[in-house]
Amino acid sequence: MITSLDTLKRGQKAIILEFTLDQVPLKLLEMGCLPGNEVELVQIAPFKDPMYLNINGSHLAIRRETACHITVETLSDE
Amino acid sequence: MSKQLNVALIGNPNTGKTSVFNQLTGLKQQVGNYPGITVEKKEGVCKLPRGVKAHILDLPGTYSLNASSLDENVVIELLLNKNDKDYPDVAVVISDVENLKRNLLLFTQIKDLKIPTILVINMADRMERKAITLDVEKLEERLETKIALVSSRKNTGFEHLKELIANYKSLSVEPCVNASVIAPEYFDRLRKAFPKQDLYKLWLVITQDVNFGKLDRNEMQGISSFKTESKSNLKRLQQKETIVRYQFINGVLKETLSIDHLAAKDLRSRLDRVLTHKVWGYVIFLAILLLIFQAIYDWSSYPMDLIDEAFAAAGEWVRNTMPPGAFTSLIAEGILPGLGGIVIFIPQIAFLFLFISILEESGYMSRVVFLMDRIMRRFGLSGKSVVPLVSGTACAIPAIMATRNIESWKERLITILVTPFTTCSARLPVYLIIISLVIPDQKVLYIFSLQSLVLMLLYLIGFGTAILSAWVLDRILKIKKRTFFVIEMPNYKLPLFKNVAYNVIEKTKSFVFGAGKIILAISIVLWVLASNGPGENFTNAEANVTARMEAGAFPQDELDKHISAEKLEYSYIGYMGKAIEPVVRPLGYDWKIGIAIVSSFAAREVFVGTLATIYSVGSDEEETIKNRMAGEVNPILGGPLFNLASGISLLLFYAFAMQCMSTLAIVKRETNTWKWPVLQLVIMSGFAYVVALVAYQLLI
Is 3.40.50.10470 the CATH number for B5-263? Predict the structure, then answer.
């Protein structure tokens, strides 16, 4: 299913498809957030924001407002 | 060998770069600032095989050569400027075996600058536990470099690294990724326009907003015409470059690295589940904060009492052993009490930096940022503001510098503006001495000491005011918001004792020497002003007092006290204090406190030292500062000068007033204008005055 990154549930994995370049900082790309890479939602902070991700082995947290600009395809639930 | 060998350590944050630096240089290191900016510059000396000496420079951590902060600018400016005296003969890129893929991005960029580069793979001791296997030879071949597998924890691999550094001339300088493939035509034009320049260097100059002040302007003339590509186009190209680099890295690592992912998922997820839990996460954070305050107030009080007594004894010793005269009195009554006022801080500052560096080193701080971001954002701050606000309890200066990794300018500015409200350690001695004078030493509910509760309350007031003013500023400031927020969640690590210890020593030292200079100068000036006076009232003080008080009716020491009080009153400082007394009287202070407050505008901690100096002038007994203050009598109302009303008023004044020149200077440097520091000074101090006034008038 194609959706945006902020709709993932905890523990869900997805493949990054594309993103709005102007809304996503270069630093995030450099940390591995690139089309084709796998992303896992590790944890959501209390109050639902920010989101703790594992992108391609890099662990990082971003805000929901950035995550909603990243389009992903979810991998079938395990 | 006459010319020294320049080595630069470069790496992502959280790769253990500082541990490698500490292992290489030991205690032969210096920490200073880059000229003109407040970025910390760490350098040291390392002995290499065959008697070669290397100058090691620890550059700020960065994820890539695309700078987005002042710290990162330092890295790229140095690497692009061959004329810089620190320009590295060899670059050592530090990577962490578990994040090799991401770490190699920076490595390939540096390699493209044609600097001889060594790759250090740190935390090699973790490989077995995490079931990581690495074909080092093959990796060396593919990356055209030499690799040192090291472990700072186990202290292994460093001899090999030193050997590699010493043989830097044999390193290949071939780039491993050709960046020009991302836009062949564009790069072709660039090459033709600047045939003499290195292509990748040109590309970096074009894409960065860095001020390349030191680069040869003539060489770079006309470069602005190549910025014609629109900003978003340039960013598109940078994205393409990143993808190309990762493609290369993925290809290389596929052949050389294998990780058993099941083995890798262990401690992190279990700890994260607890530490970022919606209830336990906050409970644990609060408990850690409480522990920190306990250490600052309770544990450090023992060494502090010793220091206080030692300085009193030293003053006494000087008075008794050195020949009487102006010089002895300068030392015993000016310099020693002034110095005592700063040395007494050392235990507290050391504890604070101890905790902060353990929290940072262990990886816990990122979890706090993660937990707090949503809450802080409600007040116009970022989760990353937590670090400055917590370190602000040590000192606002490093705290304000720690705001640099906040991506949004508005959130960063607000953090800078409100951080001085947090209770810095310079306020502590003022709080401690006043609390011990005016708050009774009682237990509440049998276990909590009333005095520590009041201290805790003052911390909460400081923190609360910071948060509330952030909320107000968020509504007032009209700055276009463009919030990016990315934070790495590093692996949990047991903090290395060496790193923590070095950090604590370094931070304490720079604080004590920085503040010490100001305090020493002020105490000398104060002593001069207090031991001299204009006119006959000062010179004839002794005779006047003796005449007024019938000789023999009072014991000699009582008489002496009156003489020294009279002298002080007619000294230069006495006149100055009297001049400002009308301003501070409504707050419940006398002119001596007024002088102490005025001199505290240089730095708050001067307050205690100033009172110590003022009260020491003319006093012969060995007494601690506290006893002298307790004996002061309110000249108008009678009763102790430091009572509940004036004490609370003073505490609140110090809680809110902006009394630190160094902080103002840092704010100026970080915001690049005098507007913000001046506003801070006026608004904070005005607010402090009003609050102190209201408190005194209500309590009296």
Answer: no
